[in-house]
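ok trying this again, last paste got cut off
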Amino acid sequence: MRVDFYQLTRDPAEWVVPLLARSTLGAGERLLVVSDDAAQLGRISTALWQRLPDSFLAHGLAGTAHDARQPVLLGTTPEPANGARFLALADGQWREAANMVRVFLLFPPEQTDTARQTWRLLGQREGVERRYWRQDGGKWREGP
């Protein structure tokens, strides 16, 4: 499993998730987006429709009869009812999730200490590749 840590120093998660969703769908995968914050999920939903000028990203909120059909599913638990193998943790809180190939942990500067603890925890696990990304101006750069 690969875990990408995204430190959000400029843009909020709701601006970053559509970019991750577009890349995920472009790779032929499905995405599950998780947050305990219902308002944040609402903002992410709006951003998936409006953020990228060249397209909208079809998605749905978990808990409906159509969960399995959604290319991007928004929910509060890491249960991929849409069969996703990619997971975006939009609220910065680590959650264990089975059968994920890639996890995006998005966290603001005030959650840096928690993200560092998660980094160390995952570093002790076999088969986990970790990468750290930070915003440098308007671009994402892989960092130490």
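PB: full thing came through this time. The chain has a mean pLDDT of 94.
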